[in-house]
């Protein structure tokens, strides 16, 4: 009995507890009403706040449905600027006019107006830049304020008598003044460049003076020089002969040194150097006191050639005339627009024209290589002597890769003497590294041809000056083209020559005004020349050439 009664009482208590728990989970109805009211009020406040925010929000910031309905289309801004009805075009036109008035305002001392115009020009530029970056058309609301302000300022400028006619006259005078200044600068630059190119650096002059002193002081040098004149090597056609005509001791030394340094058998090389009376002692001394790997160097003076006189050479005769001396050697000129480069005395120096008298200078030789004093040899040149010239007198590298290096570039084809005998489209070629067949030369009587053309050009109507036009005419139809790699030109004026072309070249030529021994030399190419300068020589060190 007691066990059963106890069990029933426990069940009753458990049901009472569950009843009380379920009663506590259920919320009264008034609480639900209160929560609903709060939610309703919050929703109304949210809607009210949202409407106010939408009312005062700027249209540019709004990324809502209105932008989706009317999206901005990308435009071609260049077409906008070209369109006569676009605001971008109006802004650009106004800005251009405003810039002209800025100049006029500054000239008339109205700095305030100039500052205001400049400020609006910057605003205009900023707006155009934004339009170009975003790729959208400039709207009236954006353009109108700037256009209005620029219009008022332009009207203000016109009211101050800065009208269109004044603008045109002023700008035209500015343009003419700038053009005159540019012309004067070009002429001045040409004069200074030519003076620098023609000048003899004091370091080279120092070397010449010291070598001349050595020549005059040392009788042994003069005796050795006379002994070398009788060497059989000078007339041996089994050896390789080179000729150089120069008054520059160091430049000639570089040519000789670079040639023997790159030769397979330097002892078989013979150099015939001709210089003038002033530099003869210095040139002779230099090649007597220095050894160039066993080669032979003969130095001669141009005064020894008694056959080179006014009766036999038109050039010598022309140089004795006062008109020619005034053209090339006068300090000034009545014609300020003369082309300075054509008045370089070097163009008519006898040394420069000796290349047309090689058979007379070397009467016993059959073949010779001519080298200018502004070249550097990088390969063995003895292979030149085995090149077949096919009966031609001269072997040269052609320069007509571009059309302006043909004959019509150098000669006056309006003259009947030229046009009747020469094809203007014939390919030009270069002096500076040439192989001459002296047997063919004598057969063609090329020196007489040179004299003929010099006589015809006594009035400088066929060509201006220089040896190349005379050479083109003298050896017309007598030139054998060589491989381009034998002779690479332009190191004296062209800063963009391909390094691979320079490395493959047998000879590099510093033709132009920027010679490697001058301060205005192109630095990129100067090291090639300096490799063959003996900077350890006492005289060179003393003259501070390095």
From TrEMBL:
<keyword id="KW-1133">Transmembrane helix</keyword>
<dbReference type="GO" id="GO:0045489">
    <property type="term" value="P:pectin biosynthetic process"/>
</dbReference>
<keyword id="KW-0961">Cell wall biogenesis/degradation</keyword>
<dbReference type="GO" id="GO:0047262">
    <property type="term" value="F:polygalacturonate 4-alpha-galacturonosyltransferase activity"/>
</dbReference>
<keyword id="KW-0333">Golgi apparatus</keyword>
<dbReference type="GO" id="GO:0000139">
    <property type="term" value="C:Golgi membrane"/>
</dbReference>
<dbReference type="InterPro" id="IPR029044">
    <property type="entry name" value="Nucleotide-diphossugar_trans"/>
</dbReference>
<dbReference type="InterPro" id="IPR029993">
    <property type="entry name" value="GAUT"/>
</dbReference>
<comment type="pathway">
    <text>Glycan metabolism; pectin biosynthesis.</text>
</comment>
<keyword id="KW-0472">Membrane</keyword>
<protein>
    <recommendedName>
        <fullName>Hexosyltransferase</fullName>
        <ecNumber>2.4.1.-</ecNumber>
    </recommendedName>
</protein>
<keyword id="KW-0808">Transferase</keyword>
<keyword id="KW-0812">Transmembrane</keyword>
<keyword id="KW-0328">Glycosyltransferase</keyword>
<comment type="similarity">
    <text>Belongs to the glycosyltransferase 8 family.</text>
</comment>
<dbReference type="Pfam" id="PF25557">
    <property type="entry name" value="GAUT_1"/>
</dbReference>
<dbReference type="GO" id="GO:0071555">
    <property type="term" value="P:cell wall organization"/>
</dbReference>
<feature type="transmembrane region" description="Helical">
    <location>
        <begin position="30"/>
        <end position="48"/>
    </location>
</feature>
<dbReference type="Pfam" id="PF01501">
    <property type="entry name" value="Glyco_transf_8"/>
</dbReference>
<dbReference type="InterPro" id="IPR002495">
    <property type="entry name" value="Glyco_trans_8"/>
</dbReference>
């Amino acid at each position: 009995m007691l066990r059963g009664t106890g069990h029933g009482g426990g069940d009753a208590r458990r049901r009472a507890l569950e009843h009380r728990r379920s009663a506590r989970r259920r919320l009264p109805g008034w609480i639900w009403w209160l929560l609903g009211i709060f939610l309703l009020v919050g929703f109304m406040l949210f809607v009210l706040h949202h409407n106010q925010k939408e009312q005062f929000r700027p249209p540019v910031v709004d990324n809502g449905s209105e932008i989706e309905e009317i999206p901005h289309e990308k435009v071609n801004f260049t077409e906008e600027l070209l369109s006569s009805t676009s605001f971008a075009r109006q802004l650009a036109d106004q800005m251009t006019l405003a810039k002209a008035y800025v100049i006029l305002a500054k000239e008339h001392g109205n700095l305030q107006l100039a500052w205001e115009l400049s400020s609006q020009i910057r605003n205009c530029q900023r707006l155009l830049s934004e339009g170009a970056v975003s790729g959208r058309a400039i709207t009236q609301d954006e353009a109108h304020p700037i256009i209005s302000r620029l219009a008022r300022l332009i009207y203000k400028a016109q009211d101050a008598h800065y009208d269109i006619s004044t603008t045109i006259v002023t700008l035209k005078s500015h343009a003419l003044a700038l053009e005159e200044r540019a012309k004067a600068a070009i002429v001045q630059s040409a004069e200074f460049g030519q003076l620098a190119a023609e000048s003899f650096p004091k370091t080279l002059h120092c070397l010449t003076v010291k070598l001349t002193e050595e020549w005059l002081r040392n009788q042994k040098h003069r005796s050795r020089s006379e002994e070398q004149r009788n060497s059989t090597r000078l007339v041996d056609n089994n050896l390789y002969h080179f000729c150089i005509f120069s008054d520059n001791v160091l430049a000639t030394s570089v040519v000789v040194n670079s040639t023997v340094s790159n030769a397979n058998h330097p002892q078989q090389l013979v150099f015939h150097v001709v210089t003038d009376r002033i530099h003869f002692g210095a040139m002779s001394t230099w090649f007597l006191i220095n050894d160039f790997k066993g080669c032979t160097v003969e130095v001669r003076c141009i005064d020894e050639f008694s056959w080179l006189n006014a009766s036999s050479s038109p050039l010598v005769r022309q140089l004795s005339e006062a008109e020619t001396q005034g053209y090339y050697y006068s300090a000034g000129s009545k014609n300020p627009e003369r082309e300075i480069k054509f008045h370089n005395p070097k163009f008519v120096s006898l040394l420069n024209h000796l290349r047309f008298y090689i058979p007379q200078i070397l009467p016993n030789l059959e073949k010779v290589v001519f080298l200018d004093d502004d070249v550097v040899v990088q390969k063995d040149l003895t292979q030149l002597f085995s090149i077949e010239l096919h009966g031609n007198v001269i072997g040269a590298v052609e320069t007509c890769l571009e059309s302006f290096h043909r004959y019509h570039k150098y000669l006056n084809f309006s003259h009947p003497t030229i046009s009747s005998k020469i094809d203007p489209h014939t390919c030009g070629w270069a002096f500076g590294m040439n192989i001459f067949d002296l047997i063919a030369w004598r057969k063609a009587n090329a020196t007489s041809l040179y004299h003929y053309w010099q006589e015809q050009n006594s009035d400088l109507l066929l060509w201006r000056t220089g040896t190349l036009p005379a050479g083109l005419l003298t050896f017309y139809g007598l030139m054998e083209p060589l491989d381009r790699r034998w002779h690479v030109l332009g190191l004296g004026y062209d800063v963009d020559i391909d390094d691979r072309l320079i490395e493959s070249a047998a000879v590099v030529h510093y033709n132009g005004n920027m010679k490697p021994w001058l301060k205005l030399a192109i630095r990129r190419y100067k090291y090639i020349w300096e490799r063959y300068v003996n900077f350890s020589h006492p005289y060179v060190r003393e003259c501070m050439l390095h």
